[in-house]
Design goal:
Shape: globular
Number of helices: 11
Helix content: 25-40%
Strand content: 15-25%
Order of helices and strands: EEEEHEHEEEEEHEHHEHHEEEHHHH
Largest sheet: 10 strands, mixed
Number of strands: 15
Distance between the termini: 47 Å
Radius of gyration: 18 Å
Amino acid sequence: MNKLLIVGTVAFDAIETPFGQTDKILGGAATYISLSASQFGVKSGIVSVVGGDFPKEYLDKLNAKNISTEGIEVIEDGKTFFWKGVYHNDLNSRDTLITDLNVLADFNPVVPQEFKDADFLMLGNLHPAVQMAVINQIPVRPKLVALDTMNFWMDNTLDELMEVIAKIDVITINDEEARQLSGEYSLVKAAQKIHKMGPKFVVIKKGEHGALLFNNGDVFFAPALPLEEVFDPTGAGDTFAGGFIGHIAKSGDISFDNMKRAVISGSNLASFCVEKFGTERMENLSEDEIQKRLLQFKLLTQFDIELS
């Protein structure tokens, strides 16, 4: 069985959408990525940090999904990273009300010995210095290194981010971030420029409008499944990343054709994530539900046409 190492935040979120609001609930990039990847039965481990206020039952939930929490450092006298935000009516935009870094501010990651030979590495959205510190602790380069990042790091730590981007195989970012990183409005041109920075594969997420995969002139588009109800988009991008890397880790195949299937797998799982607040939907997802929705994706995109 291939090993997957996931780096990112394990956190508390407080969310308000037009459909309701929550108090502090389980969140964080690494949490969503790992829960999504766990659907593929891979052995995964998280590198992160939490405070003494983080409930043990949350760690137990992850362990129950075959997700190792050995690499999650617990700072007993510290507080866990906390984010609070409110979404607008269209759910495509949000306002951040609170960002408390807490123990994350001085986080020095330590990769557990068990995962120093990880076959696949997923660098979740986090400070590039932390991502680089993890890369430097792995003696033999994994078969595939994927990175998810955001415009905050482009604005504030661009030089460090570029050093990380030069060492990865896959980058997953949204369309706005792709344009900012490349300086190009056309997403095709943006992907071409980002390729030259290091990544062989560029995945550009477009939210409810699907995702694009680029690789050396080849392009693939996956739609987002039209949903009757969307309650909370928090974590959808991380869930996509988890489904993407989880599919690849299970198969061990890093070809462009398999990347296409990985994009569909990521989009499929992200469509579940948005149906409930926080991680609730991902915690209780069945294989039967996943397969039925994969069939919906197939029917959505499959057609026959005569070419003259």
